[in-house]
Structures are given as structure tokens and as C-alpha cells.
Design brief:
single chain, two-stranded antiparallel sheet, 12 strands
Length: about 350
Amino acid sequence: MQEKLKNTGIEIGLYTLGDLCSDPYTGQTICAHQRIKEIIEAAKLADEAGLDLFGVGEHHRLDYATSSIPVVLAAIAQTTKRIKLTSATTVLSTVDPVRLFEDFATLDLVSDGRAEMIAGRGAFIESFPLFGFRIDDNDALFSEHMELFLKLNEQERVSWQGRFRPALTNAEIAPRPLQKELPIWVGVGGTLESAERAGRFGVGMAMAILGGDPERFKPLADVYRKAGAKAGHAPEKLKIGVTGHGYISKTTQQAKEEFYPYYANYWSYVNRQRGMGGSVSREDFEQMTAPDTALFVGSPQQIVEKILRQHELFGHQRFLAQIDIGGLPFQKVAEGIELLATQVMPIVKKETSK
């Protein structure tokens, strides 16, 4: 596996959360039906363009279109041929691990072995009361569900007992995925505890770096690798991914001019969802898109430089960009996919394969 990564460079892909946001110019909001259609079409374009990965995130709110991730990814599997398909992320604390494994194992069969999962604790809490869990148990739920899911991934018959679900006694876990095991990653927002836990589990770690100086995430990468080694996991199992917001245009100035209204719109409604006020001023946006920051907005060359700078920091194996936020029209998303695939990915792969 290490040789493959050495030869081909890091993986490049996209992810979406399926947000239903009004267009800041027209004030109109597309419906969930159209949003899902556009997500499937975006994945098809990404596959045809040669990108490595496409992810779909989970929310249980009326202002998001994607709550049933395996269903959406299964639909994408039917219109794509080679691109890997992942959740981004699965809220592992509030789902039964057995049902979840069955869903993703089935997705793996449907997609000819392309299914993956990024597990997280979620940025919103609506799934806890919805599925009968206590938010106070979030940390314990996540750890227990991850431990069980990893066991289900390894064995087709499982005996297990825990705190939050009924015990299993020589239970048959079916179907089995086409891959020997489903690739599992843990999404990490910024805490050393989460990074350490991901390393201890011996799964991949996907760091959500949405802005600021990316160097502040270097301790997470170090703690993750140290914890993984201490737990006895082979170095090749300890993979790091970087995820972040992005927008690409012909020049950096054009990218900033085009993207700012949508980016400010995005943070305005996300802050309202969280019971907060305010958005992003143009002055703040200029600072947030500076060359030394983690916000991937700019010309193809600017994006390449930002990815490579982070690769020097983290030595990561995967980069995922979210390029469809804030009510951005689908045509702009399609243009971003083309630029990422044709003008960013070849250079990044060449440089990171050295």
C-alpha cells in the first residue's frame, strides 16, 4: 500500500453536506429533490474527471437533504465507475453499529468494492433526541459503537456485550463486504483527545481544517501517529486526510470576488442554526483567504500551493474539498470540479509522489 501511495501521490476528492441554502442573489432555495439530483450529477462529473473520492455528509434537519447516506451513495454508485464513495461523516454515536455495517457492506457490494466510512460525533445534536440517545453520552456512545463496528468489520460471527445496545451471541453479520474490510476513518475537528482516540483505534484520521493557520493542526497529526504506534498499529494503517472548504477560479482575485457572497451566506445560516448571529465581513474574508491560511480559495496555483504546504506539515494521504456551500449554483460547482481535476490534481499528485 505504501508503494502505491508513493507512486501515485495523495488522493484528491470532494465532499458535500447537502445543505439547502438560499442563493444570496435570487433568494431562492432549491428543494431536497433537486439538491440530491445535483449531488449525484456532481459525483458523476468527479468520477469522469478522474478524482479519487466523493463523500456525502449526514444531517437530520429540514435545511439539509442528506440524512440517509448509504442510500445516496448507492444511487451514486449506479452512475459512477471507479471513484471511491464515503460518508463525510456518519454520526456514529446515534446509529446502531450492526445496522450501519449492514448498510455499508451492502453499499460495498453494490459499488463493486468502493465503499468507505468517515465516522464522527457530529457538529449538530438533533440526531440524539431523534433516535433516543442522550447527548451527555456522546463520548461513551462513540467509543463503544466504534469498538463494535471494528469487530463487525473483522468477523462474520460476533459475540459482544456493551452498555448501549443488546448483547450479541454468535450473531451472523451479513452481508460481508466485497473488500476484505471496509476502510474506516474518524473525523476530527480539533481536539487532541479525538486524534489520540483515532490513533488508538488504528483507523484513518480525517481532519476538518476550515480556516486559520493549518500549522495549529500539526500536534493532532503527531498525537495520532504516536497513539497509533503505541497501540501497536502498523504505520501504513495510520493515514491522515485533510478536509476543507474550497473554491477555484482562473485567478485568485476572481475566485474571491465570486465566492465571497456564497461564503458569507453560508456562515450566516450556519451561525443561525447554532443560535448565533453574524456572518463574515469582506475584510475578514480577505484575511481568511490569505496564502498562509487553510481556506482553499484561489487560482489553481494557489490551491496547489496550499495543499502542498499542508502536505509538508502533515504528510497526509488524502485531500477532500467541499465546494458547494452557501447556495452556490450547480454550474459553478461543475466548473470547480473541472479545475480541481485538470489543473490542481495532476500537479499535486506529481509533487506528492516524489
